[in-house]
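queue> pop job 88
queue> type: inverse folding (structure -> sequence)
queue> payload:
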């Protein structure tokens, strides 16, 4: 498994774009019909999953597994990758910025711990 920067560096940005599209296609099958999904920028995405808390983390583990098992056809061959997922949960007094920063911190922790994992914010 290689990360998106390695894919771009070794295979070109066209392959990187194809991997992003392939990842999205693999991920969509794991989302519930009322979950929202979007790209933040680069290789960062956002999933808004109402009703999911720390006890119900299976959604994010399914997403991680689906992408890790996804084989993506690119112009340079079949590639696969993994994701590092940071999860935060909202409460009534949590701002959008606090929520995103908390998820971002958890994602970077997942990356530091070797990637291909789900980490919940503290």
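queue> result:
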């Amino acid at each position: 498994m290689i990360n998106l920067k390695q894919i771009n560096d070794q295979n070109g940005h066209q392959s990187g774009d194809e991997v992003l599209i392939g990842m999205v296609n693999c991920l969509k099958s794991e989302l519930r019909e009322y979950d929202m999904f979007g790209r933040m920028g680069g290789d960062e995405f956002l999933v808004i999953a109402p009703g999911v808390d720390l006890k119900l983390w299976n959604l994010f583990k399914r997403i991680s597994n689906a992408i890790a098992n996804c084989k993506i056809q690119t112009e340079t061959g079949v590639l696969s990758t993994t994701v590092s997922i940071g999860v935060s949960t909202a409460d009534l007094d949590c701002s959008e910025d606090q929520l995103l920063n908390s998820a971002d911190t958890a994602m970077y922790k997942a990356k530091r711990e070797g990637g291909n994992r789900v980490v919940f914010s503290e």
